[in-house]
Amino acid sequence: MRATWYRNAIVYQVDPALFYDADGDGVGDLRGLTERLPYLRGLGVTCVWLLPFYPSPFRDGGYDITDHLGVDPRLGDVADMARFLETADDLGIHVLVELVMQHTSDEHPWFQDARSSRRSRYREYYVWSDEPTDEGLKPVFPDVEDRVWTWDEEAQQFYRHAFYRFEPDLALDRPRVREELDRVVTYWLRLGVSGFRVDAVPLMTERARVADPREDGRWLLTDLRRAVRHQRAQAVLLGEVDVDPREYAGYFADGQGLTMLLDFWVNGHLFLALARHDARPLHEAIRAEPPAPADSAYANWLRNNDELDLERLSADERDEVLEAFAPLGSMRLYGRGIRRRLAPVLDGDARRIALAHAILLSLPGAPVLRYGDEIGMGDDPSRPEREVVRTPMQWAGGRTAGFSAYPDVAPRVALVDGAFGPDAVNVADQNVRRGSLLERVSALVRARLTVPEIGTAPPEPLDLDDPAVFALRYDGTTSTVVLLANLCPDPVRVELPTGGRPEDAPGWLDVHSSEWLDRGADDDEPVPVVHDDVTLPGYGYRWLRRRPGSPL
Description:
The protein has helices at residues 30-35, 37-43, 78-90, 109-116, 175-191, 201-211, 219-231, 248-252, 264-276, 280-288, 315-325, 342-345, 350-362, 427-432, 437-448, 453-456, 515-518, and strands spanning 11-14, 47-50, 94-99, 128-129, 149-152, 157-160, 195-198, 236-239, 260-262, 297-301, 308-309, 332-333, 337-338, 366-370, 459-461, 469-475, 480-486, 492-495, 508-513, 533-536, 541-546. By secondary structure, the protein is α/β, with parallel strands linked by helices. Helices cover 28% and strands 16% of the residues. Strand 16 and strand 17 form a beta hairpin. The chain is built from 17 helices and 21 strands. The two termini are 27 Å apart. The longest helix is centred in the first third of the chain and has 17 residues, at 175-191. It has three domains: 5-102 and 175-447, Alpha-Beta Barrel (TIM Barrel); 109-160, Oligo-1,6-glucosidase, Domain 2 (Oligo-1,6-glucosidase, domain 2), CATH 3.90.400.10; 457-546, Immunoglobulin-like, CATH 2.60.40. Helix 9 packs antiparallel against helix 10, helix 9 packs across helix 11 and helix 13 (350-362) packs parallel to helix 15.
């Protein structure tokens, strides 16, 4: 079997423009990110998911790319990228970069040449029409764009854009565009990345289906996987696939398609469970989705660079989550999601934020941490659309939040204000404060690294005595772990699963517990569980491993 490092990876999603400024211009950069890699390694991160760093007008957070083979000069150059990759490798950290080949910026040289003449060699790179056609495609951002076709006066045709009108769709049904796709993956893999987060996968396969209806267009993914493996055998394709979970198997393609799949289905039901203080929706969601094939995996997250997308929930369930976590219309977006960071959603309650991370780290597959969530960063409601959650990392207190290597330089993007501002929420303070959210999340991540069963064994949701308790059991070849989390604010008591014999009950050892930090620094080390039941405090969690030699 091929190495599957990614199944137990701890992934950290970071925007280099918003993380740390090394050159004093108020914009984060690759040099700054390189300087902060030891912080990530100390947190327990084993893989960095790097948000767009390519040349771009940055009208869409860098996803409007003008050169897929370059580095935006505000963030550095290719030499800085090579140094970042080398340093990450020295620290044992893999790096995933964005593969955005469903569209480009309208400022991309390809599009500018394409619109100049119907005889341009780049005309076929994009999707054009003399009249708008109804292909059933809806705008991805309905609050902003009401149609997917825009008239171009110079080209004298309409061009298609599933996203913003300044992001024209690439025609992946054309062989020459797919050749460009291969060039992009080859270049970055040769430079040293460990794989790609693939943007807008269903839209990519929709265009492939136009050229060849085989496998509903998902042959594009098997071709891409083959090209990636040819360059780097352990490279990863982490796909953004927001579809019904019954379609997941087709995107995995029996281990020949996407390597990993971002699990929108479980993500939505996780927040439904948090809203209800009831684990049953999450248990049911895990049971309902297909298992990942061998050498494949799911990836889970709490928040990311976009809205909290609740599209996989029913209308009633969606309304329930919105009412709980986004009661104001200004907190909602696109008719389907929440435009808030995790900490404000959970009222800044460090216990509840830590609980959410405990659940995330319990889920099958690789957890994805969003930069700043480990300290409980807030958001900026005054910013438009998804920009609300795209604020600078808060390293220290004060006017500049320690964002720059030059102490008096403030980030160009405004910092969060008020209760979640840098004076209240920052790395420097939480690094030295016992019981801080950073300490709790770091301890959870380190504990997760000691439980490889989560990444390799199938999950078994357990319905225990209280519906507020989220419980997963993983049975390895010679080991068993049970991970418990209490979704309600009140203590709960549950019986542990046993083999049905009284002598089996004392067979559990502590791996990690929320109570370890709560008891204080002078308490003795935790002792093995000796009873057949466990009491979890409000918003508490506890991870247990069956004692070696105990009956399974």
